[in-house]
Specification:
- The protein contains 14 helices and eleven strands.
- With 351 residues, the protein is an alpha/beta fold.
- The strands form two sheets. A nine-stranded mixed beta sheet has the order 4-11-10-9-8-7-1-5-6, with helices on both faces.
- The termini are far apart.
């Protein structure tokens, strides 16, 4: 068995957050700094299967223990969610002590997958879909790859504002360039999601895991998930298929109306594909867009590079997510940039 790659794990911890989020999240910034320097923490991350070797998985396992009532972690994370940790460095060291005292607390949960199912991305999807679809198209079908609990398949259910209006369901998104949010959203005829392990909001363990994957210092994200759980039954129904994108795409298209435009979306899921899977997925989606009534929206880390689509180095360094759109009959085109959780949107090409 090959020795664990601790240098790789160290880099992953170091670059886990974009610069703007290190400033906003002092507790998680301090915790990642400690994990980056700790041999046991490096070994735990290095032991994770490659497609899920994400520091957020380790962070989520710790918050899961806190949500389950761990005597040390519980109060620390509760303070982070509902107030302000006065000494983030000290809190991070106490968390690291727990890792050393009971490493199985983390190791025993590393079979899971990070699944934030971040609703904030719906603020981006609303703009992209409204501007992608021709005015003459009144109805579309949607397929989401990496759907988790299917929350973003209901992207049209969220109000979007530039400032907090007190409604936990409101998505707050700052448009850094002029963005046309006035275009009418088409109605959605069918909503189909694909995920290797779809989650169920009615299942307590699944709900806890979704909450554990949220950053504890972002209280509003936790309040939003609670609000979504409360209203989800009143939202449109979705169909969730278990399996990989390449295994279930045909099934998903068969469940969509062939007479409507089908829009395929993926947000921070190709990041977890192997290079071979990324190539196969790209080839399949671009083939379908060329030959069928299909459009494709991709919002991914700049670590995911699609053939023929260049990555701007400045955006790469600030941790932005690249937006790539493919119109029916066309090739993938860079559209702009956004925060990974939809906090801001920037269009860099004309519509």
């Amino acid at each position: 068995m090959a020795a664990p790659d601790l240098d790789d794990a160290r880099k992953r911890y170091h670059f886990a957050l974009p610069p703007e989020d290190y400033q906003r999240l002092p507790f998680y910034a301090a915790l990642l700094h400690e994990l980056e320097r700790d041999t046991l923490a490096l070994e735990l991350l290095a032991s994770v299967r490659l497609e899920q070797r994400n520091p957020m998985l380790v962070l989520a396992t710790l918050q899961l223990a806190a949500l389950r009532g761990h005597s040390v972690l519980g109060p620390i994370y509760d303070t982070a969610r509902h107030g302000h940790i006065e000494d983030p460095e000290g809190a991070a060291l106490r968390v690291l002590d727990v890792v050393h005292e009971t490493p199985e607390l983390v190791r025993g949960e590393l079979w899971r997958s990070t699944q934030t199912n971040e609703p904030g991305r719906s603020a981006i999807l609303q703009v992209l879909i409204a501007n992608l679809v021709a005015d003459s198209i009144e109805e579309i079908s949607v397929i989401e790859v990496g759907t988790s609990a299917g929350i973003n398949l209901c992207f049209d259910q969220f109000p979007v504002r530039s400032r907090d209006d007190g409604n936990p369901l409101t998505l707050i998104c700052e448009d850094l360039t002029p963005i046309d949010r006035s275009r009418k959203m088409p109605s959605i005829k069918s909503r189909v999601g694909i995920d290797p392990n779809p989650l169920d909001l009615s299942n307590e363990d699944d709900r806890l895991w979704l909450k554990a994957c949220l950053w504890p210092e972002e209280r509003r994200r936790h309040e939003r998930l609670d609000a979504i759980v409360a209203v989800r039954a009143s939202w449109p129904s979705v169909i969730e298929l278990t399996g990989s994108a390449l295994e279930r795409l045909d099934d998903a298209f068969n469940l969509s109306d062939a007479d409507t435009l089908t829009v395929v979306i993926n947000t921070w899921v190709a990041f977890y594909f192997t290079p071979d899977e990324q190539r196969a997925y790209f080839n399949e989606l671009t083939r379908r867009c060329r030959q069928n009534n299909v459009a494709w929206i991709s919002i991914e880390s700049t670590m995911v590079t699609w053939p023929g689509v260049n990555v701007d180095e400045e955006a790469h360094h600030r941790g932005a997510s690249q937006i790539v759109v493919t119109n029916p009959g066309s090739s993938p085109t860079h559209w702009g940039w956004c925060h990974a959780h939809g906090r801001w949107l920037e269009q860099t090409t004309s519509s």
